Amino acid sequence: MNKKPVEFSEHVCKTCGNVFVGLYCNICGEKVIEAKDRSFKNFIGNFLTAITLADNRFLKTLWLTIKNPGFLSKEYANGRRVNYLRPLQVFFVLNLVYFLFPVLQLFNSTLRTQMYFLFHSPMIRGMVNQRLSDEGISLTGFAMIYNEKTTILAKLLIVVFVWIASLPLSIIFRKKNRYFTDHVALSVELACFNIFVNAILLSGILIVLSKIFMWSGTTFGDYLNDTTLTIIFISTNLYFIYRAARTFYDQKGKSLIIKSVLGIIGLFLALEAYKLLLFFVTFYTI
């Protein structure tokens, strides 16, 4: 006598104990595990789906983050969530790429930058010089150790920047119908935007440009410096904040322009605070 196919057999759910017929428990939704579910091919498929790269919602969500900043956070805050990935899911996928691959380190600062080009640089120089004097090491040697350590820590501490950036947003765009967690959700979307546009996408563009310049016998190195990257950062983030202020916070008219400018200032202050925190964490762990 032939054995019944799994989908027509009776099973006892291993999670809730319910007796059911089919592949899925009608009470809790637990799936009956078959031999093919343990195959390597299925494992890879589940892994890709888990990190959402094989899910078209990832591309849809990412595109909306770029095309209409603030829309996804508004949908999420208003309870419309099934058609998109949660901002935090997209953040972790992009952060994984940011962590594993050699892209522009948007959220990192070398020791030289920390010592000479930030608001808190005078304090940093004093601390570093004292450390060099106490331990009898050269600035060059210390910088090598510092830069290697801070590159790793910067990738791990991006989530801290998300929380810091949500503070000025919650102050500038105060509304009774927005909870603090709503501002955090928008800050997550902002981090996703920056990681993809200003780190991953910009790195890809620079790779292509480097090939073009190499073939032409010229170089773009003279044009790619801290000033250029700052201009790109300001332009892209002003675009994000302006669109998000209109879409997520429902700002209009003069208020939209004024609060967008305040938003970009708040973002820079948040980035400064994050880089100061990054320095302290790096400085005291080496």
Supply database-style keywords.
286 residues; 11 helices; two-stranded antiparallel sheet; mainly alpha
How far is the first residue's CA from the last residue's CA?
70 Å
Q: What is the overall shape?
A: globular
User: What's the number of extended β-strand segments?
Assistant: 2
Biggest sheet descriptor: 2 strands, antiparallel
Strand arrangement across the biggest beta sheet: 1-2
- The rounded Rg comes to 24 Å
Description:
The protein has 286 residues and is an all-alpha fold. It has 2 domains: 6-38, no CATH class; 56-283, no CATH class. Helices cover 66% and strands 2% of the residues. It is built from 11 helices and 2 strands. It has helices spanning 40-50, 56-67, 71-77, 87-100, 111-116, 121-135, 139-156, 158-172, 180-216, 226-247, 253-283; strands at residues 10-12, 19-21. The chain has a two-stranded antiparallel sheet with strand order 1-2. A hairpin with a 6-residue loop joins strand 1 and strand 2. Helix 3 packs antiparallel against helix 9 and helix 4 (87-100) runs parallel beside helix 9. The longest helix is centred in the C-terminal third of the chain and has 37 residues, at 180-216.
